[in-house]
Specification:
Layout lengths: L1 E5 L2 H9 L4 E4 L12 H10 L4 E4 L11 H16 L4 E4 L10 H11 L4 E3 L9 H11 L3 E4 L10 H11 L4 E4 L8 H8 L3 E4 L11 H11 L1
Parallel strand pairs: 1-2, 1-8, 2-3, 3-4, 4-5, 5-6, 6-7, 7-8
Helix pairs in contact: 3-4
Amino acid sequence: MLEIACFELTSAETALKSVADRIEFCANHDLGGTTPNFYEFLHLKRHYAKPVYVMIRPEGGPFFYSDEEFLAMKNSIIAFKEGGADGFVFGILDPHNEIDKEKNTELIELAGDVPCTFHRAFDRTKDLEKSIKTLIELGFSTVLTSGGKPNAMEGREKLKELIDGYSHKINILIGGGVRSENIAELKSFTGGTFFHSSAIMKYDTFADDGEIKKLKQLSS
């Protein structure tokens, strides 16, 4: 399964027309992704059949949110769910960089039958094994991770451990610097089958159709 992270409409349309299985739609690449424009999302749902997962993150920076920001996240889930979101991507930590069970549970309950991915806030937590057990308990369908390291290649040993131990209970989506030049090695080393990439080439701004096709071919 290949998910392309798309930070604006051009990349989203490129990925949805290409061979990606689904996209993660968000805004603000420089902030690591925030909640996208609702009307751009509706445009994508109107014109394309492939699944669109929506990032729910009101601000960049730490993954600890004020009451006002948390309310904005809840309102976003309600709106995007009504708009036909195929999945949600979010993650709330407490001030100690541990998973906030209460707030994440509230969002999962609002999402209902729409699957939820816990994003790379997971990699900020101190004990990934403890954290992944918490995510399974809370009902997340997927966790996006680079194995606790800055990128997936550096985290590949931990990714392999997580996949060996927990992939029968939660989808482990490998992300963080995943490109066509390393995806085959990541797949072979970790045994992973779920991959996440922006497919943006060096010195470029938008997802590249040729790169998406290479990623899909090498991960299949």
